[in-house]
Automatic annotation (TrEMBL):
Residues 81-90 have a biased composition (Basic and acidic residues). Residues 1-117 are annotated as: Disordered. Residues 1-17, 64-80, 91-109 have a biased composition (Basic residues). It comes from the Bacteria. Pfam families: Alkyl_sulf_C. This is Alkyl sulfatase C-terminal domain-containing protein. InterPro entries: Alkyl_sulf_C, SCP2_sterol-bd_dom_sf.
Amino acid sequence: MHAQRPRRGPPARRRARSAWDLPPRHDIGAEGPGVRFGPRPPRSPLRGDVTGRAGTDRECIHDVHRRPPRLRQCRPRVRRHDLTADDQGRRGQRRVRRERARLRHRRDARHGPPEPLAALVHFPTTRDLPAALTLRLTRAQLLGLLGSGALDGVDMEGDTSVITRLLALTDAPDPLFHLVEP
C-alpha cells in the first residue's frame, strides 16, 4: 500500500465562530460591571425618516429599544408588573401583521449584578386577545411618548392608566446605554 501524502493547496477552512465561541469580555455597562460575550452590536441611528412616516411598522418598538433613545426598565419595581403590548403595523393596504411584545422578568448574572431585568421580547402570534388600551400613533408620536411621556395627538381607547404605569417603569432615555443582546 502506498502512504498517502498530504494534499497541497489551500488550507482547510475553519469552522465559523459564533458570538458564544468568543472569550468573554469584561467591561462596565449601564448596570455595572458584567461579562459580555461576543462583539458589541454596531451603533446606528434610527432607520427611515422619523417625522415623515404615518403609522408604525413591526420594528418600531424594537428600533426604539435597540437604537437611540435607549430605554431602560431594569428596576426592582418592575418585578410586580406584567405588561403586554400589541403592535399592529400596516404595510401598505395589503395586510396587517400582528406581533405581541411581552415584558419578561429574569435573573441573569451575566448582565451585571443579580437583579430582575426586564426585556421587551417580540414574537409573532395569531391569537387575538383583548387589549386593555389601544393606541393609534405615528412613529414620531411613539418616540415622543417613550422619550418624554407626551400624549399630544395620540388616539387612545381603553384604560389610560396602563400607559401611565408603563411610563412610570421606564427610566429617562440615555444615548450611551448599551443593551446586552443574547
